[in-house]
Task: inverse folding
């Protein structure tokens, strides 16, 4: 038997955390190639529906086992619905739409800009947090990386679909706003994070079932790579299991450290895209360096701001 305080127990716990951290980055980073494969057979809305359906399954299984869904939580249903529509249904749809129009690696790098828009939304709408010089520099650096990806100066030759870039930025910005929404309307009630994730995913599934045209959705069964990618890679692992791993890391490390998986995600997406034959040039490498540097600056700047607030 391993005692909680024993060195062996601590080493085992540390190994589990590192493994979870790496798995989360891999699951998130590989999502983009699965969406790219599926987009050749079905619509982004259908991809979103399948993703949420298969992502909901592991969440529901764990919730039934742990019993974290309570009757009194129903009074928060309007807020759950807002999160379901914006932070789940629309977010996943916009990601799928953007990935369908872009190389999967580029989409993955843009998806890594979540920290940038979360910081901007926090600074604009939460008066409890004030920007410092490092955070502002991080925002500028992040936008410089996005500009290198969008390449507005190359618009004429159509090398990068600007609509795809805008869809990706719409997704990351809406997720940043959802963080503020949770802080304002749900965090004060101290709901279990797993319960919140299950409510918003389950409600998003109902919304998507109501609004998604499912005509031709079975076409994905014609390619087992794409079908397995959406069901297992994108849904079960990249959505459901990723939620569970993220909340495990939140519990073990805290929000700032857990969000460090964002460093892994763009790199994994870019490497997978390169392995699949997508072009990875100097501008792409420079862009990912700027995006990762931006994430680091924003996290360090926020930690400094929190320390100054507590003094």
Result:
């Amino acid at each position: 038997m391993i005692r909680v305080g024993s060195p062996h127990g601590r080493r085992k716990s540390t190994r589990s955390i590192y493994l979870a951290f790496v798995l989360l980055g891999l699951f998130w980073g590989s999502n983009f190639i699965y969406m790219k494969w599926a987009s050749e057979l079905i619509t982004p809305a259908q991809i979103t529906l399948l993703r949420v359906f298969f992502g909901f399954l592991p969440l529901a299984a764990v919730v039934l086992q742990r019993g974290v869904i309570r009757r009194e939580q129903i009074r928060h249903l309007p807020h759950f619905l807002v999160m379901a529509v914006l932070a789940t249904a629309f977010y996943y749809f916009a990601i799928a739409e953007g990935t369908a129009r872009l190389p999967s690696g580029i989409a993955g790098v843009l998806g890594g800009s979540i920290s940038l828009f979360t910081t901007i939304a926090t600074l604009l709408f939460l008066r409890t947090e004030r920007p410092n010089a490092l955070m502002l520099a991080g925002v500028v650096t992040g936008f410089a990386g996005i500009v290198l990806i969008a390449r507005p100066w190359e618009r004429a030759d159509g090398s990068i679909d600007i609509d795809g870039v805008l869809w990706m930025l719409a997704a990351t910005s809406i997720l940043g706003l959802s963080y503020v929404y949770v802080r304002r309307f749900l965090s004060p009630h101290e709901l279990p994070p797993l319960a919140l994730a299950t409510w918003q995913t389950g409600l998003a599934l109902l919304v998507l079932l109501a609004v998604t045209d499912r005509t031709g959705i079975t076409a994905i069964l014609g390619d087992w790579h794409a079908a397995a990618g959406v069901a297992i890679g994108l849904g079960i692992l990249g959505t459901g299991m990723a939620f569970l791993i993220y909340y495990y890391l939140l519990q073990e490390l805290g929000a700032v450290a857990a969000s460090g998986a964002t460093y892994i995600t763009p790199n994994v997406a870019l490497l997978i895209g390169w392995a699949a034959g997508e072009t990875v040039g100097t501008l792409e490498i420079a862009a990912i360096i700027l995006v990762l540097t931006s994430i680091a600056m924003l996290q360090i700047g926020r930690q400094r701001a929190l320390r100054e607030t507590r003094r």
